[in-house]
Amino acid sequence: MWGLMRYDIQGSSKFFPNGAVATSQPLAVAAGLGALRSGGNAVDAAIAAAVALTVVQPTSNDIGSDLFALVWDGERLHGLNASGRSPRLLTRDLVLDRAAGTVASGALGGHQATVGSSMPERGWLPVTVPGAPAGWRDLHARFGSLPFAALFEDAIGYAERGYPVSPAVARAWARSVERGYPGLHGDEFTEWGRVFTLGGRAPRVGERWSNPDMARTLRSIASTQGSSFYTGEIAEAIVGLAERTGGLLREADLAGHASEWVAPLSVSYRGHEVWELPPNGQGIAALIALGVLDGYEGLPGLHERIEAVKLGFADAHAYVADPLVGGPVDGLLDGEYLARRRGLIGERAGEYGAGEPQRGGTVYLCTADRDGRMVSLIQSNYMSFGSFVVVPGAGFGLQNRGTGFVLAADHPNVVGPGKRPYHTIIPSFLTRGGAPVGPFGVMGGHMQPQGHVQMALATVDEGLDPQAALDRPRWYWHSGLDVQVEPGLAGQADELRRRGHRVRVAESPEVFGAGQAIWQIGAGYVAGSEPRVDGMAAGY
């Protein structure tokens, strides 16, 4: 029988009867756990950890990020899309004009990003309205129990008094200083160097880092329930910088922002249901892949798993966009359609017309409490420090999620005003026959749906507990026939090559993402955290 969920727990995952927190930075785990111990619930813990992550892992997320979440309230699953829209002044023609150099230097900002067939990655053009502060507020308003401001205390303390930079964060920070920031010219980038470098270098492992400007911003958000970010002093600072340096965000863009509660999507896999948020996120790519794999009589091999992921991405890149203009995503999970897609998989590696994959910088966390509530939450700058545009005196940077738009005029995800772009960040949740198993996620841009598929297969097909599933060697498909595998899968590389895959055994773990998971078992939880970064799972 498939999916016995036996969890052969041999000390790899930790068992907690009262609640758990898992994420990619131990200080953020401590903040979430502190909320639980103070009488808060899983949502309080998730918010406290998420806010702390903006301080202690700024290489991947910030106050200027977007956020998505799935919340199991003890009876059913709720979805929150807290992603922002593009400025009303952003048009395709404007992007193309700037790329062609037809706009006079300085008219739209000193930094003229190079744009070819895709959106730029840095500067003002890819900046969309940050949704994270509103997401924290809206999660708390619906499910929180502790005072909203109390959930910011640890983060404010880390920002004000400093904290020791952890190893994986230090490595990512150094890459951004050495490779990402050089070559960015314009007044909009000046503040990044002041705030996020120490005399031009990144902080080293264990070196104490503080950001007092960010502490003041967090206090303002906490005391105003987030309103200062969208209609108050922080909004004024963002718009002031935009107007001085050629940015497109205006008061109406920020004041008009709103999160959206949405119905999650699911697909069945061997007696279980895997849940994702609907577009504008790419979670449907994972659901398509799992729906394709569910049709095999026996366990699908590595070749079939890779091909199913390719099919998922081919459709995601074609149809995922702002749901107001996107394609027919519901039909992509139809059983007959999935069977037809499954029929395309043969003995040889195929190419199914997927778009150019995207990479990202993201944080994921999950929480659980003694009353059975669980949260799967993800937030992100995108691409390390995002746009590298930092608001003077506020201590935080703005995301570059608009990079997810495309320039093809006939695509539903074409860049335009007031639109949500294709998003790589996706939280996930697993149930069995409608009963909760728990939250999970894997960070890392294009890796995320692939990581979700691999976590689901390890859990359902192999019965692994969260830590054992996260420890499994991973594979990563980039584009075309190119596949990377971790050394633990090197023994299968020759068979994949025989089938036409171009396989490379990668020594670095960075491309394979970073995940967390919490499963509910009996009267408690087992939790695991990513071994490839600074992750930690803790509870009581």
Automatic annotation (TrEMBL):
SUPFAM superfamilies: N-terminal nucleophile aminohydrolases (Ntn hydrolases). It comes from Dactylosporangium salmoneum. InterPro entries: GGT-like_enzyme, GGT_ssub_C, Ntn_hydrolases_N. Gene3D superfamilies: 1.10.246.230, 3.60.20.40. The lineage of its organism: Bacteria, Bacillati, Actinomycetota, Actinomycetes, Micromonosporales. Pfam families: G_glu_transpept. This is Gamma-glutamyltransferase family protein.
